[in-house]
Design brief:
alpha/beta; about 220 residues; 13 strands; 4 helices; about 10% helix; two-stranded antiparallel sheet; nine-stranded mixed β-sheet
Length: about 220
């Protein structure tokens, strides 16, 4: 069984997308259309951090790696889901909340923070998600983990301009996948594997991804 961890990119007003304040919105324009032309072609305009996407170190670190230079082997691997669905709006996720999974955290493991907040995607309160404590991010990096994902707009508090968690993880050479969905389903998988591969965008700080998960041995 393969689980799609990706929100649909859409311009629909009936199913709106959540966007980081001030970032570009998605635009999709038909530039060729059947039957007027021989084929359908769509012009797509979006930000590098639109929808389900991944942040490269260069997003916050001036000389950090860009998505086209990052080691792809680090973005496909064993997934460890940290279940913190009991957290309330704008509540901090501390190391104490994550510590019971510490024994499974090591280099090569991709840690997915499941808050359950993807249910609010496209709604006003999506921005009120729980967020990670920067000290927890430091502890996580000490375990050897370098790639994390979250089912929220950010692992940081959206009200905090410092984005300390981003700077800790990206500063350690890590990557952050944001706006994931369906992490609850990954909890049901035996030996889950996750793929968070970006587009190969030249010298870019981030990229939309088609995030998926499956059980090892199923594919």
């Amino acid at each position: 069984m393969m689980i799609d961890l990706t929100h649909t990119l859409t311009t629909s007003t009936e199913a709106p997308m959540s966007i980081w304040p001030g970032h570009p919105t998605l635009e999709m324009t038909k530039v060729a259309r059947i039957p007027e032309q021989d084929a359908n072609v769509t012009l797509i305009s979006l930000g590098s951090h639109t929808g389900t996407h991944i942040d490269a170190p260069n997003h916050f670190i001036a000389d950090g790696l860009t998505v086209d230079k990052y080691d792809l082997t680090k973005l496909v691997g064993r997934a460890l889901v940290v279940d913190v669905r009991g957290k309330k709006a704008r509540e901090m996720i501390t190391w104490e909340d994550m510590q019971k999974w510490e024994g499974e955290m090591h280099e090569g493991v991709i840690v997915l923070i499941c808050t359950g907040w993807s249910q609010y995607w496209g709604k006003e309160n999506y921005e009120e998600h729980p967020f990670m404590d920067s000290d927890a991010a430091k502890k996580l990096m000490e375990t050897g983990v370098r790639v994390i994902g979250c089912d929220t707009l950010s692992p940081d508090n959206i009200c905090s301009p410092e984005c300390k968690v981003h700077k800790v993880i990206l500063g350690a050479g890590g990557m952050i996948a944001e706006n994931l969905r369906g992490l609850e389903e990954v909890l049901t998988l035996k030996n889950p594997i996750v793929s968070l591969l970006p587009l190969k965008l030249d010298s870019c700080d981030g990229s939309p991804i088609r995030a998926i998960a499956w059980s090892a041995g199923d594919i």
